[in-house]
Amino acid sequence: MWQLKWSLVIKFILLGITKSCPAQTPLFVLFLLIYIITLVGNVGIIILVRVSPSLHTPMYFFLTHLAFIDICYSTVISPRMLADLLSDDKTISFTGCMMQFLTFVFFATIECHLLAMMAYDRHVAICQPLLYVTIISSRVCWQLVASSYLFAFLSAIICTWCVFGGSFCGPNRINHFFCDVVPVLKLLCSDTRSSEMVIFAFITINVVGTNVVILLSYISILCTVLRMCSAQSRARAFHTCASHLMAVAIYFGSAFFMYLQPPSSHRSLDKVASIFYAVVTPMLNPFIYSLRNKEVKDALVKCGRRLFKHWQHKIVVSSRT
To answer: Recorded GO terms, molecular function (predicted)?
Structure first.
């Protein structure tokens, strides 16, 4: 056990979002509502893609995995945060904190890679439409997703060791609402320079690296779209990419603010940024991809009509009997 071998600390205290008692109950209601919407919205996306043949394409294959990751990602953070808002005991065991950190890094890394894969998918669909089926085959989709899960697992294991493999011998109060890398590193008694370098390298690979893929994909898309003769074709191509661009901007914008800055510059706004990418973004993704996507809206309407006809048929059959 790491806490026995390396550390005098066997538990941590999460200071949470706010110390104001009157604000805790309204915040609990707000974040509980966000969590429920997150679960319902993302489960709805997964079911809709599965039951709609028109959505059985690589883009929506990646979207179902994104929805699944958002469910897991949010569940790692939200239940514990909600419990702490109503409880005076905000302690978390060393092992519990370590596992929360590991799973958070795992799912966050996969989300970065999935957003990059979706950008590459749009690049091939718009820039090389005749080769799309060959390049983005079912086998390639599974290989890309499997490789992202594997790389995320290795990243999570190494980053967790860098943070929790050190010595905790002083204060055990984490100034955050979950076990995130920056507030936990501040509690280490041992030298953190090597750990910070390794963690920063992995963050750079996962966040900056995937952003480079997204940027290059959209530069290529932009060049292709500008060469299109038809204004309608250009508008359709831009509309196809709008949902993904919005999801990328929301997720990576808050992640860049939180992680790619010097440790000395971290402020109280970090909690706001963390709430945004860890709690709010998983809720927004289903709305972004459904309300701004004609294919999803059409599939939702067709699914609703089938359910309505099935319900009408059951009523007619039951009335005859």
So the answer is: G protein-coupled receptor activity; olfactory receptor activity
